[in-house]
Amino acid sequence: MPKTFLNKRKMKNVAGEDMRGRKSSNNVLRDDNAVILKNADDIRSSIMNDESIDGSGGDFISLTQAMEKSEKVSYGFAASSKNVTSQSERSQPICSSPQKKNATSALDRLLCTNSRRREGNNNSRLNMETKSLVSDEVVVEQEQQRRKVGALGDLNEYNRNIESIEPPLELVKVPSTTLAREFGPDSKEKKKKKEEEKKVGLRVSFPAPSLSWGNAEEQVFAHDNIRTTKKERRSIANNEKKRKATSNGAPSFTVEEDHTYKKSPSKEFMVEWDDDEDDEIIENHHIYLNTDSAVAVEKATLENHATSASRVASALKIDPSDMNVQEKMMKKLERIDAQGSRIAAQRIIRIQKDDSILILHVVSCRKSSNSEQPKIITLKDHWVDIQVQVNDLIRIHSISKGNEISGDCEITATNGLILILHPELLLSATMLGGSFQCLRKAFINTVVGDDPGGDASEAATFGTLLHELAEKSLINSGSSTMSNNLTGMNEKRMEDFIVGLARKSALDLYAINKTVDNFIEHARNVISGVEKWSKKLTALSRKARIMARDLSSKMSIANGNEEQLANMREENNRRFNQPCGGVHVEVLKNGTSNSNVLEVSQIVDIEEIIWAPRLGLKGQIDAIAEARIRNGKQSTDIKVVPVELKTGKWKDVVEHGAQVLLYTLMIGERYFQTPGASPFGVLHYTNDDQNEEGKTTVIERTNLEIAFLMHQRNRLAAALQPRDDEAFPDQSGILYSAENMMERAESPQVRSKLASGILPNMSPSSWCERCFQRDSCFTLHKSLESGNERTSGLQIFSASTDHITKSHSEWLNKWIRLVDLESSASQGKRATPWMDVEVVCSRKDGIAKNGLKLIHHNIQKNISLTPEDGTPRRDSFTEVSPGNIVNEDEWFHEFIVTDRSNEQCSLSKFSPGDRVVLSRNDGLMVTGRATIEKVEINHNILSLVTSRPLRVQSDDHISIQASLPGSANSVELWRIDRDGAGHAMAARSRANLIATLAKDVSQNQNQKIMHIPSETRRRIIDFEEPVYEKFASIKLPGRYMNDFAEFKRDYLNIVADLNEEQRHAVEKVVTCSDYALVLGLPGAGKSETLVCCILVLALLEKRVLITSHTHNAVDNILKRLPSKGCEDFIRIGDDEFKVLREVRRYRLGGQLWDSSSFDAINYASKKARIVGATCYALNHPFFARKEFDIVLVDEAGQLTLPAILGPLLLSKTFALVGDHHQLPPLITSEIARRSGMEDSLFAQLCNKHPSVVCSLTSQYRMNEPLTKLPNALTYEGKLKPANDVVADKMLMVEEDFDAEARKIKWLMNATCEQPNKAVIFLDTSAEEIVQDQTRESSDERPVNKGEQRLVLEIVRSLIRRKVEAPKIAVLSPFNAQVDEISELLKTDEKIRDVESLTIDKAQGRDFDAVVISFVKSNPRRDTTELLEDKRRLNVAITRAKSKLILIGNMQTLRGSNAMSKMLDVVASEKMIEPVDNSFVKLFL
Questions:
Q1: Theoretical Cys-Cys bridge with 676: which of 215, 403, 668, 1247, CB 3.0 to 4.6 Å?
Q2: 492: buried, middle or exposed (CB in 10 Å: 19+, 13-18, 0-12)?
Q3: 385 and 403 in contact (C-beta within 8 Å)?
């Protein structure tokens, strides 16, 4: 290994020494542990005349305090002893607290501890390199650097201003506490390094600055990290490199050093990074290195996108000469650029690491010119530690101006420029605030979320409700429009609001075992102080309203006298600027606090959702106000600022202050003011021991603090950003062999993929034991990272994970990987309003519409109660008036499509109930979420409903917020993007998987259900065979007094109408101690069997949960219960309109079951032992304290394993009912599907234990001829009619009165009632002319116009022959064909009631006559995978009761194995009818 490389290795470890005990300044000068760059001439005198930068009394000193004293002191350093005025100042180390030896702030931990590990190992740290040179040498070196910058191109105005005032620097050595902790005074390492330091540049790890609005006492955390020694780490790194060199032949890189930067000669060496993980990335070419001098490389830029693709392909070890690969790379780059084009993002094409700077070469995502030259971004200070790769998107943002920087620039900690990595990832400000405590916790919270049962607690629930009360109090006191028109309240109204809120939240209170009265009493004790604070805070707002009224009356008297009017306005402004009430606040800036007064002139909004795609941030801000700070008679200008309310007892100025500072940035994106970001934010704690009104703190924004917050945001974004598997070759499959897992267990922490990102390493601390994500964190470390107590660094780790076996870990690895694959494939479902509409619509499942004009807004509707079920109904549009009964959470708006709307996406793509994101400025300004209520395609009108009114400037009297800042104008165009639930579903699936490996607990603190996951693991992972009781030994409830004969009589009455197979299934379900499996073949009466199971379980007083994957499947079971005399059941579901009309009255909160009080909910819970809900609704508060004896899962074959785990974890036993030979779970990712994700738990258990499966083979749907196809294809002759009546049932038709139609043989045979024609295949390949007319289209969405015409003629003939339209269905595997047939059916009044469905939507339904269009007709015999799916085909051919008509091209369909087998049966049974040229006459 070249010597230069070895020397750079040694430069990483620099000896340190704690100087607190030393009293001589000479010792400071002689200390070799740290260095500081200091002005040689100009700075010396200014520091000597200033105060000590350490502050007074040895308190914690933040970075910004030091910078206030001297802007030329590099961050992390105290002043030289030459420039201090006292002995104590010379000896005081910076960033050190005398109370606690190792006290550090959150950002100290971030940059001095976590960043030293660089996420991959535990020893990487933020490094900055300097040269140990005399002052003259530094001057020369700086001049050389300036010349190089000139060669690279001019920097922007920010950097030119900074460089122009930066004088020559010299080196003065002072103590560093971070180094002193690592290396003591007698450190041998220090002595070994001294000689090396004289020869090579000195690399020093600086102690990081703190957030100035925190203090040392609040920010102390215990770090118990177990770190490997340098020797161990180097050994591991060397072994890994040797292994890779052997397997991959990865060469080392030759980097020619620029002599303007370095004094040492050019030598070949491995590029140095801080850990072996980074070396792996380099060896995989994920960092593109320069192989020429700096100036030459900059000139050799990419001239166009083809060259760019070639360069990137080379970096990724792809042969550019391979045109196919190059085309793929070009498409990949186009997708990346499309994500960042409209937010002015730039794509990294090259990365250079040089000493203490990082240079990024970027190209704009905007395709303005193919010959555009790359820009150069130079990163210094903490930005050097950013984790970037080639092709990553970044954006450079100016804090002060609020715009992007597109030219060459330099970014430091203090120059007001920030780099946003992956701005397309919108990260929550709340989550980022909490990430300082632990980045891993924030990551897990993002991709996993809470446990399946939720995370309800008294503090959280009460805090949320008090939060809403505080917001209402602010609106009541400080809004000139919202308070008067929307939620204005006097004292009595406030009391009424408390009571109403408590009743509305009764379910949430029930989840924590608290009554409505408990909360009301608590709220009354708190709200008085909140109201006093609100009135003081908003005194200026009330003054402004009074003055406005006075001015209006005076101006009317002035009669247009301009001089008088000018004097009135001047006097009005003078009065307005005078002090008026306000709240005394502590203003924190640069670590100091001052007593000032905060005055709010208006509350603009509450709970406003802000998405800031240019900043990569999102959040929901508690309140937004127009405010100013007053200090005596002086005051700041009024600005729009965020107000953050905290109602709990816990105070963390670091976490909460970070949240507020990020909100100040986001305000700049939402409200156009100068400067862009808010100058300060407000943090108010309502709970304070010393003041009933609480404590208010104003946090002023500084460039330094914003820079460090965005650095933390970038760290989390880098972890969350999906990475290609090849970037981490040691874990490309996530699933490890036994040998590999043993090797990983012996190594230090390894990095694992989760949610396609990289799971941050554990950072053990005293907080871990109390962390709400502890169980998830430990489980992931044990299973995904092969962790143990040693690698975790926590003694409690073993006790929490010793139950997890090797097979459990492998199971979790597999399913986490599958969920991640599926989530990645579903990214197109998520709303991305910052992308071009055309790009969104081109993605799979992407739907967006722009160019919408608002024609009616903020309309509320009357609500009435229908007598039959008591369900609220929306009657008509109406204005808000005292006499109307309205829902204050529903605001209706109508939009019309203009000619400026995109044509790629029609309104037909949207459906009522779709959730969308509503935005302005073509997506760059998100207004909030909405739900589509109605789509009027003919009139191009779209109706939306939102939970809050829109802010729109309008003179219309309906408008309630016309004058508020940030309002839309009346001519502004809007945009909507459909927002799928892919991310939330994936997080819930991961949470279910992790919860399955949880440790058994008897009962948690919130009195939730008893969790015994070990039983679930035994059944579904270990696959132990289920156990059943004897029917005669069933434990009977008390009312039977152990009289089994009486129970059996009741039991027989329930199952009297069932056949023997169905009775056997009921018996198995009732007697199972583990689980039961019921395989219900098509039409075999599984729904009726399930109903009987429920009735028998109700006799036994069992607590039963009925669930499935859809609302219809659940309601299809529940709606049958009332007719059987069972009405003691509850339907759980927040959206009443998704519940069937027959079941709505049984909803919790509906007509039968009150949910407005604890007693009412408790009564319903005890009275109704039967509960129905979809498997995705189990985070409902009702389930927080609910436990079930058995869960019945209908259509279990269509549920993925992660989705079904939620209900299984809530019950002691379960029964799965379904048919895994029909449709499997819907999986988007082809890789996940082939890897086994579509293998439902029902299919796995049936295949594992076939002897325990209860099969229902006697079907009541199809006549005997219709059973031939499914028996031949799937059921091997097992499917049979239940009786002769079913077997002989034929379609009842009359003679077709159309004389011309009676002449067409194939049409008459297709619609006749003859038994031998019950199944008929209309072959369009018999004649060439027919083939030509029935060819499929060449569009991406497959349709067949000829088959559509055939379908219409067949349907019309069936209608003419007296078959009722609702009993006819048209099916097709392809959505496009279904959509077009549906539109054609609507054009004819007689056939408009015929349904057109996809095969997937038809499962679970049946019709007298079914027509199937297979669409595919081409000479290539290309049939696509949809027609290769035997299970989908099985569903299609088993929907008909009496008549099945198949339409297709036999020659083409023979290309499918599944279809070919079906066609063999059709041919052998003589069911084929060729379509002759008479069809062409009909077509013409």
A1: 668
A2: exposed
A3: no
